[in-house]
Protein 1
Amino acid sequence: MSIWNEQLGPDSDVVISSRVRIARNISGYPYTNMNDINSLTNLMEELNNIIDKIKKQLGLTWIDLRNTSPIDKLCYIENHLMSMEMLGGDLQGALVLNKDDSLSVMINEEDHLRIQSILPGRQLEMAYKICDDFEQRLGTKLNYSYDEKLGFLTSCPTNVGTGLRVSAMMHLPALTQTGAIKKILEACAKMGVAVRGAYGESSKAEGNIFQISNQVTLGYCEEEIIENMLHIINQIIEKERNLRQKILNSDKISLEDKIFRAYGILANTRRIESNEAMELMSWVRLGIDIKVIDFINPINMNKLLVELQPGNIQKRAGGELHPAQRDEKRADLCRQMMKKEEV
Amino acid sequence: MSIWNEQLGPDSDVVISSRVRIARNISGYPYTNMNDINSLTNLMEELNNIIDKIKKQLGLTWIDLRNTSPIDKLCYIENHLMSMEMLGGDLQGALVLNKDDSLSVMINEEDHLRIQSILPGRQLEMAYKICDDFEQRLGTKLNYSYDEKLGFLTSCPTNVGTGLRVSAMMHLPALTQTGAIKKILEACAKMGVAVRGAYGESSKAEGNIFQISNQVTLGYCEEEIIENMLHIINQIIEKERNLRQKILNSDKISLEDKIFRAYGILANTRRIESNEAMELMSWVRLGIDIKVIDFINPINMNKLLVELQPGNIQKRAGGELHPAQRDEKRADLCRQMMKKEEV
């Protein structure tokens, strides 16, 4: 379990988590996409040596992805600690995690270093601070590829400059149900802000969960990028909350019916696919956030979000499962997480 | 509450209730469809006087339908104590009930007398005995229209002879789900047995509940008609039970999933229409009958079957309700009936 799905953060009724990542490359090494295996393994060794010295102090774990099982890798991806690109079997890469997974560093992804922090709720500044601290600490031991005019150099030109991407995972059921999300998407596109599903570029917004992230990394300083994103996120939070209230005022019973039916199915199903579970969980999460449901610990919704994914289900089961078997295990999990308790 | 939805009878896993009715007309009075108001009221008076003398002994209540509210009438219909035909406002009719509604007598329906008994489960013989006893008792005080060759005369020729209709209300989810019901329907049609929904001629088989009844009343004695129907009912029971077992053996989890999802929705909904509730109840009833659900009193399913109908809902609420309001009350009722208890 990672801090973002173990604790609730500010504005957690709309913002599930905040994520910041900084892309860096190390001078003297070719970019990872050159696929120079010698250079990649040398870099891994150098970074391992550097990190080894601060490991204890920062509570870090070095995970060599060359010896990591596909199911474990899938779990890191589902926990948002690692990107889908690192799933490949011939990858010369590593993942560094701190104790509560608030810091995760990918080595030899698209860039040599992807320093990332995810925190629960709306905490972009703090997430940036965690990344920045680590980046500066490493910066005293090695030289980042840097250009006076362009800033930090990255493998893909879209990341050049700050190498910074900030994003928020937001639950937007009211905006989605009413169709008002369309305007948000249009406005975001105009402002250079990308809106995607929870699992990156190609993923659909399952369960009304959207990832809002900056596209522009060049021409603004880090503080401006974060401030700008916070401004957009705050506006979306406000719109979502207003719409929820509007729906509650106009037909409370209908909304309650949808919420409780979703709860009833999740609390009783014996076999459920991931996308249906995500959809029903969206209603239950909304029910908790608008205080229609007061007997489920809200943190369960974040736990379930990760644990119902195929990798995590197989990890818990201790081995590979057919999709039908996963659907049964997922149902067991849903029932368990929907148990009534005093909150 | 009537005995058929307050107690369980034999083979109640498939047979909800057994019903027998005897049609009789009184010599010297024109048939009710002649609409001779004087004659209809005179007959009501004569029958009231006769019944008055045995009222105490048999625990009977005389209900003058001319002074009965539409909601109360609807409740009698929904409880299967009275036919839809007696809902009309200008009706010169009455209904006689004993204490547990195991005997109900309609006066001035299609025939002067429709003596009816409904009992829980498969109890056609006993239901017939209750009707027959009452018919004989009245027969000592008045003369039934009778023809040496044809037998008892009735308003509609389809009832001539014995005036007997026997039926069973059966829950056939496995036969319906697998489509095997088609063959049953065909075989019944060939044997002169009608298959309808729970509420008579035009009603669909909502919630997989079918009413199986004899069509032929002439040319067989009462015992033969009952024996023949029992034979057919027993065969249907066996087929339904075998199919349930077969489905359980082939994909238990799928079946359990359907059953528990239905339970989950009924136990949590805030607004539900009658036909959806009937459909979901069918799954829960099946779950109870095949022992997948062990925390709901089976009798609740029979109670709910009646109480979720519009008349009963309005009766409980104490007045007329809009359909949307009924859907809310129905949901309250479903949740209440689905409360877990030790059975």
Note: Strands of chain A lie at 15-24, 61-64, 94-97, 104-107, 113-120, 146-147, 151-152, 164-171, 193-196, 209-214.
Protein 2
Amino acid sequence: MPLINVRDSSMLEMKSRLAQKSMAISTRYPVMIIGGAEDKTNGCEILRAFFESAGGSSANIGIIPSASREPTIVGDRYYQIFTGMGAAQVQILDIRFRTECEEPRWQDVLKGCTGVFITGGDQLRLRDLLCDTPIVDSIKTRLQSSELVIAGTSAGAAIMGEDMIAGGSSGESPNQALVDLTNGLGFVPELLVDQHFHNRNRMARLLSAIAAHPNRLGVGIDEDTCIALGGDGTFQVLGKGTITIVDPGSLTHTNHPVTGEDSPLSLHNLRVHVLKKGDCYDYKKRAVLQYHS
Amino acid sequence: MPLINVRDSSMLEMKSRLAQKSMAISTRYPVMIIGGAEDKTNGCEILRAFFESAGGSSANIGIIPSASREPTIVGDRYYQIFTGMGAAQVQILDIRFRTECEEPRWQDVLKGCTGVFITGGDQLRLRDLLCDTPIVDSIKTRLQSSELVIAGTSAGAAIMGEDMIAGGSSGESPNQALVDLTNGLGFVPELLVDQHFHNRNRMARLLSAIAAHPNRLGVGIDEDTCIALGGDGTFQVLGKGTITIVDPGSLTHTNHPVTGEDSPLSLHNLRVHVLKKGDCYDYKKRAVLQYHS
């Protein structure tokens, strides 16, 4: 009965693929983008998911605290957390000057890492220190070949895209002057990330950013919430808040750029999703995949 | 040449319709919904448009200051403005108790009015005083038969829909507890209005309100900005800020209502528009009509 054999084997193959996919979804996320203020004392859902993605008890985690003005304190905080979870090794890449990025010692540390965690602070500082350096190149190469996973929180989340929100304000109609834009480190080029999102009322600023970059996908990430990328163009939501997707894929009009910097912006036909824990989204196809209520 | 005559006459008819439409758009708005803090000292663009809609120098304007705890001061402010513009008559309907709504004196005032202006204050106070009273019935009837126009600002804007945002907060992920909902006065039943919109960072609250009422159209109106309804299911934007439309017409999922009141809400596939002065929108067909950049 060759036909049945073929079907059996293809079903087994399918089951095995599903098992792999489900394992990939539930335990290993190549990239995690965290909205800041993630739980560090209770269940640590998000940090634990990163720890597991990096290999759990075999994890070799490198912490980059360079966005912070207190890199020693911040670095140590995460060192204690990942050590406490049982990581095999945790190292702090306390890079303070751009010239350091050329030094072989950091490359040596990175070579051993299965996971890199980028802390909060000032995203402009991160960009100035790390953009177009061998450190970032090395992380990108090792990310591509699945040799490590990365996560970034707050400023460490902001730098994930090719374009980056450097700062801005709230409490105004969307306008160009509401947001400062620059380049990010480009780990996930197509995303334009904003963090502490609804907590700091950043919808007008993300809308203003998307008006300037309608080729990107706007992703507003609340505190203690993250998008966990599966490496196949999809992500799922972890944590206690929401993810707000601003998709300008069907935009029919924007008046950006306007002459007066604080003139109100218009944006016609955006698609917006509010996602919560368990929701999955395909950012290549720009579609919500499933949900758990 | 009958054919040419027919074409000529139909072209003339079309021209005349366009002229009428353009006149209707530019000078008479049956309903104006203003996001609060409209300019009262400079060009007074929005208030002047209301004054013109009500008949200009022949206007007989009734001011309802009842949302305010200082109805005398607020009423007098608008009295001075519309008198200063040259209205034929301005009267203040200083209704302080619900029982007053039965009194013939207010009906007599309303009968003469060509325009009614509802001021800011507390929208719950307006609802408690006016909902299901002969005052509101009378305004609706006269609005329907084009005998008067109405405008409301801030609290006076909030009460326009059948459903109303009574209050709420910001700085949180969208959730049920973020917004207090009740019934409005229902002058434009299908709209769910929020005001002082980006100025007070109300996107999360409007999203939360729309999750509860996905049969409505969410309209966030910034300060010194208004939607001026044409009476044909369309409106245009006046003023200096933006209008944010949250259209759940293609919503594929929401988890509302959730068990935990402060659990995050999800909303999949909203259509969102940011409109500015000159933009037109058809809220029956739910489509942006045109724009002026």
Note: Chain B has one domain: 27-290.
